[in-house]
Amino acid sequence: MQTCRMVSNESDASVTYETKRTGAPHSQRSTWTMADAKRAKLQEAMSAEWALKAQALLDLTKLNIADAMAWQRDAAKAGAPLSKEPLASLKMQIAERVRLIEDLQHQAQVQREAAVLLAQRIALVP
Q: Three-state DSSP class for 87?
């Protein structure tokens, strides 16, 4: 359990509060500023934007691996919160689709090589 109380240091631009967990030796003070609130709102908007882009990739019938990898790179560069929902689950879904595509590509390559070897053996048979 955690108790929370407002500390007297309150202004139009920030508020400071103090929390103490049950059994913890000391309390912890935190300050929440207007800049923090604006940053949180921007993060939510950014998260929604990148979630739409990820869903658009997942909805494609033919997913391009380069596009999927670029989505993750670009989202990270933009500062999107990839470790928080919904981006975390979308990132995992895209990674799973890429893994499946890579597995299929590997299987196709193995079958091509087997076909070439078989054709060479058939050509050697008199």
A: helix
What are the tokens at 6?
């407002």
| Prediction pTM value | 0.61
Separation of alpha carbons 84 and 71, rounded Å? 16
pLDDT tens for 52-84 read: 999 999 999 999 999 999 999 999 998 888 888
Residue 50 has phi, psi (to 5 degrees) of -70, -30
CA distance 30 to 2: 14
The residues, ordered by sequence, that sit 6+ positions from 52 with a Cβ below 8 Å of its Cβ are none
| Structural contact between residues 40 and 79, judged by C-beta atoms closer than 8 angstroms | no
CA distance 97 to 61: 11
- Residue 1 has, within 13 A of its CA and on its CB side, a CA count of 2
Confidence of residue 108 (pLDDT cuts 50, 70, 90): very high
Query: Residue 6: phi, psi to the nearest 5?
Result: -75, 140
